[in-house]
Design a protein that fits this description.
Blueprint lengths: L8 H12 L3 H13 L1 H19 L2 H23 L3 H23 L2 H4 L4 H26 L2 H20 L5 H22 L1
Helix pairs in contact: 1-2, 2-5, 3-4, 3-5, 4-5, 4-8, 7-8
């Protein structure tokens, strides 16, 4: 569900035109800015997860993911209730920042889930965005209103953030990852010297 709006840039453009009476060009620029955030925000989410984990361990990654997904859902709710074009753009950029950062924070968890099945785990995670887009289309058909659909997606995304809190790692898994991290830092330090 998180990436449903990203795949629906034309719907967002139409929403800006219909709801805020923007020109098609201005609406396209506003909607396109969502995708531009991906150029840095995904990496920012991964980097932030790495920095947090360096200080607080592996478990903080899922807590950070929860916060980013919750921010994404709240930003989507804000966007759906914006009453001016300027506020809608700011809300969408906020939502987009959290969306792409959550994507980066999600993919940084992949090697910690199952090192022997990295491709399978990454594939399942990647398929989630497609499932979200299809679910958004069904919601749109059910509600018939872009604004109501966006609001419902915002609620669903916010609630889905709770799933990130369910991610748990065993003590053995944490110890193994700490050892691998220490080895990697030792190797990097010896190369730098």
């Amino acid at each position: 569900m998180r990436l449903a709006l990203a795949s629906r840039c034309s719907s967002t453009t139409i929403y800006y035109v219909d709801h805020f009476h923007l020109s098609l060009k201005a609406a396209g620029v506003a909607a396109g800015s969502f995708g531009l955030l991906a150029l840095f925000a995904r990496a920012l989410g991964g980097w932030l997860s790495d920095k947090a984990a360096a200080h607080r361990g592996l478990a903080i990654r899922s807590i950070l993911l929860f916060a980013l997904i919750a921010g994404e859902g709240l930003g989507l709710l804000w966007f759906s209730h914006a009453d001016s074009a300027a506020l809608a753009v700011v809300a969408m950029l906020s939502f987009g920042l959290f969306t792409h950062m959550a994507g980066g924070a999600t993919y940084v968890l992949v090697p910690f889930i199952d090192r022997k099945a990295l491709g399978g785990v990454a594939g399942i995670i990647g398929a989630g965005g497609n499932v979200g887009a299809v679910a958004a289309d069904f919601l749109m058909k059910g509600f018939g209103s872009v604004q109501q659909t966006l609001a419902m997606l915002g609620v669903l995304v916010t609630l889905s953030a709770l799933c990130a809190l369910a991610v748990r790692f065993s003590s053995e898994h944490k110890a193994c990852e700490d050892a691998l991290g220490a080895d990697a830092l030792g190797i990097n330090n010896s190369i730098a010297n």
